[in-house]
Amino acid sequence: MSLLLFWSILNWIFISTLITISLLFLAQTLVCRKISLKSRMRFVRIRDTTKMKDMEISSQRKEIVPRFDVSGMGNPLVDILVYVDDNFLISNHLNKGIMHLIEEDGKRKLIKLIKGKKIEMEAGGSCPNTIASLGILGLRAALTGKIGDDDFGSVFEEKIINKNVTSFLKKEYGPTGTSIILITPDKERTMNTHLGLCREYKKEDLPYEMIENSTFFYFTGYMWDTENQKVAVKDALLKAKNSGVKVIFDVADPFAVNRYRKDFLEIIKNDVDIVLSNAQESEILTGTKIEDGIRKLGELARIAVVKNGAADTLIYSNGKLTAVPSFKTDVKDTTGAGDNFSAGFIYGLIKGYPLELCGRIAGFIASKTIAEVGAQAPENIKYLVKRMFEKQM
């Protein structure tokens, strides 16, 4: 009896042990499955979160605002303004009121002759004047061009940066372009221009990051002067087009239009969104009077603007012709009038104003420029524009 009881107890212990082991194994299996499920869910959440972050980044990329409102490529010149009398011009065989292209030796000679006189220096050049005025107006502006690694180059870059312009200027050994402007008591300006390194700008000097990070890219006909400049312009236009950047072309000079009329018409047709010219340039380009000429230009580009001095400015876009009256003012110096008109029009475009208001602002800034001596808009032009057009903006 005692033996039977012993075997019964032993059997009960054995069965209990088996049941305990089985329960422990089952519990461990359930825990492992739970951990695995949690890991899977966590992985899915991580993957979904990553996907969401990718979607957010992709969305942000689409909404990235360009770094610059406008960038420009042009010929940087240091304007050296000197007040002289008529005898100075006569004794140095200089024709009054004319722009003379001079060589390096001629520049050195003139600089020696004006030594000791009151001299003012300013950053100049057609495109730089426009870009500088846009910087003064408070826009995000940038400029590229070629300057020398000399004192004049340092003066130019410092002046342009002080006008709220980001510099992408290329420096090389050689002379910076200069324009020695001799001002007589009657306010006539006799310009003696040495282009220096301006003409050496080439494709390899292009700052692609400046162009592709702009809303508008601006250049003038003055950049169509040497083969290396032409190649640089073509490459810049291609980069702008591939980056979705709008192109503004200011014809800038009747002499350039006469020389490169066919090239300019091709550029306007194939690469330009907004074309700016004056009445004389328009007539040379199109072979017709201003009223018909602007329509022809407006059929080639999205927007065509023809500046017409004291007469109405004409704007043509989408089959509509708009005439904008000019502002009357006492004229002291017409240098830079066209450059600053362009600045005013571009300013209006960037602000999203109607084309007529763009033309009004352009004419107003030009009028304030010619009311003073100098090629750039007054330093307080931003305030003057706001005060004049505040109700229309």
In the CATH hierarchy, the architecture of the domain at 68-75 and 125-176 and 197-250 and 327-389 is 3-Layer(aba) Sandwich
Question: Unreliable stretches, pLDDT < 50, 5 or more residues?
Answer: 34-63
Strand order in the sheet with the most strands:
7-5-1-11-12-13-14-15-16
| Molecular shape | globular
Bin the helical content: 40-55%
Main sheet summary: 9 strands, mixed
Q: What's the CATH class label of the domain at 68-75 and 125-176 and 197-250 and 327-389? A: Alpha Beta
Mean pLDDT: 85
What do we call the CATH topology of the domain at 68-75 and 125-176 and 197-250 and 327-389? UDP-N-acetylmuramoyl-L-alanine:D-glutamate ligase
Order of helices and strands: HEEHEHEHEEHEEEEHEHEHEHHEEEHHH
Q: Looking at this structure, what is the CATH superfamily of the domain at 68-75 and 125-176 and 197-250 and 327-389? A: Ribokinase
N→C terminal distance: 113 Å
Q: Number of helix segments?
A: 13
Percentage of β-strand residues: 15-25%
